[in-house]
Amino acid sequence: MNRRGFITIMAAGSCTALFPAAFYGCVASADSQNLKPLDPNETDIRLKLISYAMLAPNSHNIQPWLIKLTGENEFDLYVDQTRLLPETDPPGRQIHISQGTFLESLKIAASGFGYRVEIVYFPLGIYSDYKIEEKPIASVRLSIDSSIQQDFLFPWLQARQSNKRVYEDRPIPLKVLDKLRTLSGEKGLSTIYSDSQNIMKSLGSILGKAMEIETAASKRHRETVDIFRFSEEEALAKRDGFTLANNGLTGFTRFLVESFFLGTKEKAYATDSSFATEGVKMTYKQAKSAAAYGWIISENNSRLDQVKSGELYARVNLLTAQLGIGQHPMSQVLEEYEDMRNLQKEFLTLLDIPSGSTVQMLFRLGYASPVPHTKRRFVQNIII
Ligand SMILES: Cc1cc2nc3c(=O)[nH]c(=O)nc-3n(C[C@H](O)[C@H](O)[C@H](O)COP(=O)(O)O)c2cc1C
To answer: In this structure, which residue's CA is closest to atom 28 in ligand 1?
Structure first.
């Protein structure tokens, strides 16, 4: 059976038999044509697993991964230094979280194909948290192993997505939040969930303000405009970034925005463009519609902590897909530049974050219909 055939059957199975209640993933998998970064006839297990790992959530869908094939069943993962976000992510923290989401998705995919994965993190040493060196993030070795159990999140690798719609006015049942709380990361990492009205109200305004701050500097704003795809044609040509549809604008609303607000990339660069001002308004609406928030905290902030946070976040993200809830990372207030410093302090105080700890991921949770999947480049594009 070719990979596409496998994927189709897997998606159908997950909808009808395995998770009948999880409508969300079923609809989301319908547009899986966006998610095929590999020739379906490919037999190299490394490439097959990498094609699944590339479906991982990652900062701005910039896909900051490079792979060096090093042996028959071995490869190294590097940061693609041409795919960084230096204005909004100056230390490259989010880029390293995106290495972790890739590695966790890879491990889960390997379990689905009966492979054991051995990972050596930073085999040539960890570099500091303010620069990125040309050293591998991980060396990966695969070996077939009939005793490997399929990870329960495997069926959700294809269906998962970030859902950036305004969420329905519907609470998340306590037992669903408790299910999310069962996921834990390695020592030094913790995940907190809250649907406290006080916290959600304050976050609603802090996250909107954070977007105002991010957008106010033209270099930062430009970074978002550059990765935004203004048409399906542009998205298909680049196969990265995100579109209005990926952000949850569909039908007549999308038509209105495309016709009257979006304009061209050139116009959108202005910090007072309707692209910028509508983006800020949308962020307030998104944040205020959250039914709950979750955040991942690490006691330390080494490159390894960032990668491990990404691994944990990938699992959270997949579990939300399985549970039928939408989730959406909102990272502006976590960004490390001077303009954000005061608001970030307010945010850390609100969430009672211990001094010295780092909030690696913040995401809202809620109910909404699925959005079309963001695209991915082809596996060949990331092999060096
Ligand atoms: C480290 C990290 C930070 C992110 N920050 C944001 C964010 O601030 N705003 C947002 O809309 N999405 C954010 N996302 C979600 C990405 O935009 C999303 O994963 C990417 O576009 C791919 O789409 P998908 O998750 O639907 O596959 C973030 C994801 C990661 C891993």
So the answer is: 59
